[in-house]
Design a protein that fits this description.
Helix content is 35%, strand content 27%. The chain is α/β, with parallel strands linked by helices and 219 residues long. Strands 1-4-5-6-7-8-9-10 form an eight-stranded parallel beta barrel, surrounded by seven helices. Helix 6 links the parallel strand 8 and strand 9. The protein is globular, with a radius of gyration of 16 Å.
Amino acid sequence: MKIIPAIFLQAGKAVSLYKGSNDHKKVYSKSPKNYAAYFQKEGAKILEIVDLDQKNRAKLAELRSVFHGKIWWGGGVKTIAEIESLFNDGADVVILGTSAEKIHVEALQKFGPEKIFAGVKFRNDPEAPEKCTALVEKGFTQIIVKDMEADGALFHPNFDQVEKAAYFSKAKIYSSGGISEIQDLEIMKVAKVEGVIIARALYENRLNLSELIRRFEHD
């Protein structure tokens, strides 16, 4: 199971939203570049970067300069030209959300499912498995499932939602939101997710990245 640190960018800062809202968000004093360098030092092979306000694309080259693994970039990407620009600037994968639905098929055909992932947001949604299956039918093979109820809350993801999405869609599912302790990761492993994306628990030293990588990526 892949352990993937994340940096959520807003106004050039690393932030953690609370359940997808700016209300009660946390802004961290350490620069995004310092976080990326730290994640590199800790042994991360993948870094997810989410541009929350679509004003941080200039940060990509800066973060690429200190992180040498794969960079996944998401947040408001809506055109083929934007995707091409992100690849040229150092992204390895571009994540497309529902706002980019019109270019899903075109992007998959042009760049392939190993470079174009789907990103979906659920909040206790019983239709999550069906929605992930619909994305697979479009051609996606890898889907990031964001748990909006757990986002930034440091309180257990919706394991059942993620497990069913993985089982029924047959896609590689990456769970994002709510991871706060080792037990959460143990359950995600049982749920057979491809990877887990972690931000706030790493920023606030609740979890140790290098330890997680040794424990879950090397089994």
